[in-house]
Amino acid sequence: MVLEIRLSNFFSIKEEVILDLRAGNIQTKNAKELQCNLFTHNDENILKTVAIYGANASGKSNIIKAIRFCCRMIFNSHTHNENILFNFQPFKFDGYQNKPSKFFIRFVSNETEYEYSYSLTRTEIITEELYHYPNNRKAKVFTRDESIDGKKRNKYSFSNVIKRPFDVAENTSVKTLFISRASQMDRGIGKELFNYFNEKFILGYTDYNSLSLEHNLIANKNFLLKALQIADSDIVDISYRKEKVKLKSLKFIFGSESDSVSNEDTENEILKIETYHKSEPKVAFDFNTEESDGTKKLFICLLSILDIVRNNKTLLIDELETSLHSKLVEFIINLFHASDRAQLIFTTHNTNLLDMKKLRRDQIFFVNKQQDGASDLYSLFDYKDFRENMDAEKGYLQGRFDAIPFIDETKSSLKSILDGE
Questions:
Q1: What is the mean pLDDT of each run of 10 residues along the chain (421 residues)?
Q2: Strand order from edge to edge, sheet including 2-8
Q3: What's the order of all strands across the beta sheet hosting 49-54?
Q4: Does the global pTM surpass 0.85?
Q5: Alpha helices, H only, 231-292
Q6: Which of 32, 127, 347, 410 has the maximal Cβ count within 10 Å?
Q7: Measured between alpha carbons, how far apart are the two ends of the chain, in Å?
Q8: Cα–Cα distances in Å, from 36 out to 44, 46, 48, 49?
């Protein structure tokens, strides 16, 4: 489970922003009726879902993008060569391109709480730290500071948690996270963290750390059919099999005088999915060519989500409502609320969710673009004068919480666009 994420100097994020999934102390009638939106860890209430609102270009997608980048560094940094540039941009103004970017995450894996953080430029890791809470008391696992001159023993400090830690440190370049290398070198806590981010913190429906379509179908077919029926789909059965198909592939042939291209048949194995509908349950529909885009999106979403909610994982999604009806969006959110301790972090423009009978104040975050171009992240819970008998959706659309576009829709302004003035 995720407890807290902090980011600074990524894309449009300048100063540190905090996404806190630890619930606030809200004792209102509505909040008490939304106990299913929470679960408890060590006597602390944790949010199952968090919605992030903001205008187009406010930076809400950059928050998702920054988190994904930081997690993928854990997956991939042990493969980095010396000439690599890390795939992110620091904030471009006020000299922040020359300052380090920072990532911090507080999470729980196998009932142990961890705090993991690192800072980096586009070319190298600067610092890295890991703490854990055995017996609920904070203890150091390791710290690293590449700005310190000298040998690895000057830069690193270890407790006794990792066996032969300096063997790992000696094989860790400034392009590589220590925790990524420790996992590769079969160190226990390195593998623990790598597996958490690879298996429990899912970065998207079809991201490379999500389960394959075939694996998910094998595990969740019956649950998927039930979910599709509850979601008012008329699909009553699904079949799937692997098929070998021949596909044309372009192959460049490099000769001594000129380059040419040849078309070659290549045999590929694909997963063939067929669906069966209520009106004619024996007639097969080809999933890829005969189902609507909306049905395919719902199918893929639900298949991934069922694995996540059944196994108490965390899902990160940008624009949850894309290609989905607002009722289906609420259905997906309610699946997480019905889970034991699965979590969903998502951005959205769906203002129907701004309802204190659906989400608590601490589940709603806003992103606003400031005058210097930086993105600010804050919660509805921060508005101490907001009362739950107020209309949050109306207040948001009126600009009370910022995080919306302010559009000049006067007739003269619209006419000036059409007239080219």
A1: 98 98 94 96 96 93 97 93 93 95 97 97 97 93 97 96 96 96 95 95 86 85 89 90 71 48 66 92 92 85 92 96 86 95 97 95 96 95 89 91 72 70 60
A2: 17-20, 2-8, 101-109, 112-120, 125-132, 139-145, 156-158
A3: 201-202, 314-317, 343-347, 49-54, 364-369, 375-379
A4: yes
A5: 287-290
A6: 347
A7: 54
A8: 14, 11, 8, 11
Pairing verdict, β 49-54 and 101-109: unpaired
| DSSP codes joined into one string, 168-185 | HHHT--TTS-HHHHHHHT
Q: State the amino acid at position 94 in one-letter form.
A: D
Cα–Cα separations (whole angstroms), residue 335 to 37, 60, 201: 10, 24, 17
E strand or H helix at 270: strand 259-277
Q: Do 224 and 302 touch, CB atoms closer than 8 A? A: yes
CA atoms within 13 A on the CB side of 263: 3
For the chain, domain boundaries: 1-200+312-421, 211-307
The answer regarding whether domain 1-200+312-421 maps to CATH 3.90.660 reads no
Q: Which of 199, 150, 233 is nearest to 313 (CA)?
A: 199
Pair of tokens at residue 308: 């996540």
Q: For residue 308, give the H/E element and its range.
A: helix 293-310
| pLDDT tens digits along 52-77 | 999 988 999 999 999 999 999 999 99
Output phi, psi for 184, to 5 deg.
Answer: -60, -35
* pLDDT tens profile 345-374: 999 999 999 999 999 999 999 999 999 999
Longest CA–CA separation in the chain, Å = 79
Between the alpha carbon of residue 113 and those of residues 50, 77, 139, 192, the distances in Å are 20, 23, 11, 12
